[in-house]
Amino acid sequence: MALLEVRGLKKNFTGKNETLHAVKGIDFTIEEGECLGLVGESGCGKSTTANMTARLLKESEGDIFFLGKRINGGKRLCAAGKEMQMVFQNPADSFNPHYSVLECVMQGARYYKLYSKSELKERAMEWIKYVGLKESYLEKKIGELSGGECQRTAIARALICNPALIICDEATSALDVSVQAQVVELIRKLKEEKKVSFLFITHDLALTSSVCDRIAVMYSGRIVEMGETKAILQHPMHPYTQLLLSCVLPAVGDDEYRVPECSSFRGAGDGCDFYEFCPKICTQCKDRVPDLQEREGRMTACFQRGDPDE
Amino acid sequence: MKRKKTEEISFYILIGLIVILLLAALLAPVLAPNDPFKTELTLALIKPDKEFPLGTDPLGRCVLSRILYGARVSIFSSLCIIGIVFFIGTAIGVTAGYLGGAVDMVLTKIITIMQAFPKFILAIAIAGVLGIGIKNTILALCLVEWAEYARISRNLSRGVKQRTYIKAAKVCGESRLQIMFHHVLPNVLPTLVVNASLGISSMIMEVAALSYLGVGVKSPMSEWGAMMNIGKDYLQTETRLVIIPGIAIFVVSVLFNLFGDKLRDILDR
């Protein structure tokens, strides 16, 4: 059985005049020790999915199974428990500014009452060391730390409960490239040594290749393509994934490079959300939403499901 | 750096002055040269001399002794009101702001209704209905003042609620009550404390104003506003009867205002 199973998850935000369909029914699973990357442009519903999975946001429809138990459906939102932890995008803001580094890390396990007081402190110190922070940092206030150090503290806080799954919601987006690499390295180490699973949410495709085993590409609230990271990055099948990959700016200056036209169009009609921008549009695209179907070892939601070179 | 030090020194000087003031009020029975409640018509309206350093009032009571005793009522009743409204207002505001939804809607409506009344007129009406006396004055002012603190703490709490560390606390398994106590309250408290320290001076004036209007303290209890009320009939002949308690109110208000200002500067750093 999968560690995390998400089935038909939907989220609608109802405003005064209109309803925004932020997540339109997505399914995915994460196995033990696996890292699934959820990628897509801003506003495609990645963070909404993360928040629903972590039980910070109530879903409109769908089921979430974690460790074989359904964790949604209750009257009130309730944390999934010590087995599921989360690392947030803004590292400095994810801690109470009055707390010291030690208190921040201890916060992770204090309320689950896993350890005695002295044991809790010991464990916190162990994890602080594990994530690469010096012992002199213990009493420092969180405001005195750099972004990377804050994110390491956040990871230590998540780890103190020995979680089975850590949701990283754009955990590296606010960090500079060298610090990003350090955090990614730490996540890889955790995967290998502690067999922790990750739901890694990012808009940075390059990052997914170094951490994720599989990736799911989201567009306008739906997963449009899901499969092995390497296969998707090298041979994207869905026209949106192809477009997303071509949007990555070249590292070395290229005068020929042109930014492809792309926008977070949210189709309210019956057809595929992407058909207005799709270069491979066919007759069915306007009338029906393509299902996520398996082809060549991956899931794709496109009628064409064409070869990338087509 | 030098400015920071100067600020700190002036803050400690202010604290020192406030401590002296509070001690003077507390030690009034020791410091007062005469009995402040003893009326002796033969000693009425005596000019300041050795026995009565600030003279006597129309009933022959020592003005200096009454000022010292009055400090107890004015300062401690104001501190008491601020303490009560701070506690109630913060509790209601944080609950409304953090819980949101129907709880917030109901509590905010009550706060809005309370704030729609002209505060001082309502206080006069409540004190008038409840009867003269310091307890009723405190109660009347508490009833009209809590809404302001509730409004401020509610707005601050709503801001804190959006912060990522509240989400993180939820993931860490903290209950709503724990989040309110451990994360919301400590982060809204500094602003509320500054507001409360600035509110002490206006509270001293409100207590004095109620007493001046005759709905505050009961005679023969000494209170600065009540002293001004007695003095107003002798404004042209014995100006000191109004000026002395006026100066007392002014000095204490300025001291607490400066204290609040400095506290804000220090907490803002």
From TrEMBL, chain A:
Coiled coil (UniProt feature): none
InterPro entries found in the cross-reference section: AAA+_ATPase, ABC_transp_ATP-bind, ABC_transporter-like_ATP-bd, Oligopep_ABC_C, P-loop_NTPase
SUPFAM superfamilies reported in the protein's UniProt record: P-loop containing nucleoside triphosphate hydrolases
One GO MF term: ATP binding
CDD domains given in the database record: ABC_NikE_OppD_transporters
Matches recorded under Pfam families: ABC_tran, oligo_HPY
Organism superkingdom: Bacteria
Domain ABC transporter: residue ranges: 4-245
Keywords assigned by UniProt, alphabetized: ATP-binding, Nucleotide-binding, Transport
SMART domains: AAA
PANTHER family: TRANSPORT ATP-BINDING PROTEIN (PTHR43776)
Protein name, per record: ABC transporter ATP-binding protein
Organism: Blautia celeris
From TrEMBL, chain B:
A Pfam family this chain is assigned to: BPD_transp_1
UniProt cross-references to InterPro entries, sorted A to Z: BP-dependent_transpt_permease, MetI-like, MetI-like_sf
Protein name: ABC transporter permease
Membrane-related topology note: Multi-pass membrane protein
Ranges for domain ABC transmembrane type-1: 75-260
Organism: Blautia celeris
CDD domains xrefs: TM_PBP2
Main location: membrane
Coiled-coil annotated spans: none
Keywords carried by this UniProt record: Cell membrane, Membrane, Transmembrane, Transmembrane helix, Transport
Compartment(s) where it occurs, according to its Swiss-Prot or TrEMBL record: Cell membrane
Highest taxon in the source lineage: Bacteria
Segments passing through the bilayer: 12-32, 75-99, 120-147, 192-217, 238-259
Family: Belongs to the binding-protein-dependent transport system permease family.
